[in-house]
Structure formats: C-alpha cells, structure tokens
Specification:
Elements lengths: L1 H27 L7 H22 L12 H16 L1
Helix pairs in contact: 1-2, 1-3, 2-3
C-alpha cells in the first residue's frame, strides 16, 4: 500500500514537472492563449507558480526582472520532493 502511494505521488510530481516544462515551451511559441491545450496547462500550473512568483517579487532587487524564474524554482522544489519520496 505504501509503495503504491509513493509510486503514485512520484508519478504525479513527474506529470506536473512535464506540464511546467510544456508551459515554458509554450511561452516561446506564438500561439492563441485561448487554445484548449494552453488553457489546460495554465490551469494546472498557475496555482503552483503564482505563490512562488509573489514571493520572488517581494524581494526588492527582483521586482524589475524581465525573466520569470518561478517555473525553475517550482521545478527544483518538485525535484527535491521526488528525491525525498525515493
């Protein structure tokens, strides 16, 4: 039972990482933001990225950055969680 929960958690984290990666790639492709795939990816990933983005913007030196590092930070946090699971 515990092994199944660990495997399911690990798999879910991998899927979320994949969706974050897809979101980063989609941000470089000129595509309609109302496309169902884009909407789905943003709906899944935004609740994870927005709190990190707000936290980053609280740091005065990062307020005017042109690059959004929230995806990278969440990706790293998920990687740490995956390592803790296995």
């Amino acid at each position: 039972m515990l092994q199944t929960v660990r495997y399911a958690s690990y798999t879910l984290l991998q899927i979320i990482q994949g969706l974050i990666f897809v979101r980063v790639i989609l941000s470089y492709i000129p595509m309609a933001r109302n496309h169902p795939l884009v909407v789905f990816v943003f709906q899944i990933t935004e609740p994870l990225l927005e709190p990190v983005r707000r936290l980053i913007h609280r740091i005065p030196s990062t307020r005017k950055m042109m690059v959004d590092f929230s995806s990278l930070i969440v990706f790293f946090i998920i990687e740490v969680l995956k390592n803790l699971i296995y």
